[in-house]
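OP here, attaching both records as promised.
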Amino acid sequence: MKTLVAFLLCLVSVPALAESYNIETYRVFGPEHPGRYKHPASITQLANKDLYIAYYGGSGEYGDDTAVYGARLQVDHTQWTEPKIIANTPDRGEGNPVVWQAPDGRVWLFYVNRYGETWCNARVKVKISDDGAQTWSDSFMLNFEEGTMVRGQPIVLNNGDYLLPMYHETGDDREKTAGTTCSYFMRYNPKTKVWTETNRIKSPNGNLQAQVVQLTDDYLVAYIRRGGDFLPTDHGYALRSESKDGSITWSDAVETKFLNPNSAVDFIKLQNDHLLLVYNDNMNDRTPLTVAISTDGDKTYPHRRNIAGGDNTFAYPYAIQTHDGKIHIVYTTNNRTTIMHAVFDEYAIIGSPPEI
């Protein structure tokens, strides 16, 4: 009888085990959808469990016709809704939308508005929704400093404040950033509704697009895209900064061992406190797209797996973990015309079987 029970348990566990190692990848939107150029995209899970994507699209990166588009994947549906414009400034280009639902149910849309020929002329605008991203408020400015940009999702700090990654791009050059380009954060108190800035994170060649996790009340870590140009190099690494006072002040950024071809990374804390870093494991090309997981609080990252690769580019990964524990990563490919969506369990990376 014991043998029969064990055999039946094996039959039940095999499909679950196999499924846990799968990485399911879907094509969300391509050039046939509104806004042929699509780069980058962000994703959030809403209170009703729907998924919501925001991206900016138009004729090209610096097109004045670019707008922010939003689309929804309803629970138990397999088809995303047709993208529709949710932010559009006449005669000015938009960029880098970040859509995020806060703990109180309010959905925030942060995005970049370009006032000149390069992103060094940008500012960050905001819209909010209190009906699950069905309708949006008028836009308002978050920061008036020229060159201000946003790219990564906020986190909720242990004390309830929100921490939004920001960066200040300098150089007035479309092909590189100056060494003075730097990352920082804006902190929001939901009770007083006041935003405050942290110090700027400095590094010799500049840095941008920090992604942050909180490990303790006082200790936070950020992984950051390196600055500079896109010329071939044998010294291209992602950067790292840390705060030891609850995100008030941040250290200068230092090089890590993670390769970086001057491309965005994402960095999140999972529900079990493991850390997930997604990046391009290459110094010069945005391929492959690799996921690494730390189970020891950012000390080591022994678990790694490519989730996209080959003769293409896979850029601007944006990662979340949904209420059911699934990890979702959206990224762009095919010359920035296509948004892809990867879904998987942590076991697909760490290789440990789920508990039966």
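Record two, same layout:
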Amino acid sequence: MSTQPTGQPHPWQLNFQEAASPVMENLHDMHSLLLHVITCIAIAVLILLGYILFRFHHRRNPYPADFTHNTMLEIFWTLIPVIILVVVGVPSVRLLHKMETPKNAELTIKAVGHQWYWSYEYPDDKNEGKNFEFDSYMIESKDLKPGQLRLLDVDNPMVVPVDTVIRVLVTGADVLHSFAVPSLGIKRDAVPGRINETWFSIKKPGTYYGQCSELCGAKHGYMPIAVKAVSKQEYQEWINSKTNTPEQKTADNSEKETDQKPKEENHQEDPKKGHVIKKYKENL
């Protein structure tokens, strides 16, 4: 499952990260709309102030007018802000509705924030009841390999298939955290005792990075998020590697090989890393 890092910040970046999901594409469009509206307002106000300073300078207008109302002017400066609010508000409400309601989610993943790492649970019933979970820790600077990103790469990323609507259930195990991946346009608070919901869909394979966006303690800046998008075939292979228990693998291999040296006895989860520790014993 070799994928190139795509959803990451770049040096001297001025705009948002490249959009990798439909929601983020809409956020880009909304940002562009607001930027144009704000620019037009600023230019209009600047021109109006310049005209007022020039036209009503005391040398050109030594005797100020004695009237206090202008009906047409008051109508205009009431209607124009209303029109601006409608132009901004309608697409904004549509986008908020789209962000809050995932339609026809094909896969559900639960993200749990801990001090200071993330754990992911795959409880979807399409895994044939073979649910599993794992922890995701940041790779220390001294352990980084060429091409890996400091403070962003993790040992166990969240793996998802492309062209799939992914529902993410977000919660916290201890304190407030926030699950945020900028290139996917998602950001949800992880609140202990409460489940918040978000969603995304990725079209292009790659690795998309985020970080906890809620001050959660001393190592707040050391619990990154990595979402690896792969093809559906690669995802199914990854699911099979996670859901096939060691006992099943041993039983399958025993049908083909009669003289196996190591035999798996059991396994347990390391509470620190969440990796599977295997114990073997020799056949007597």
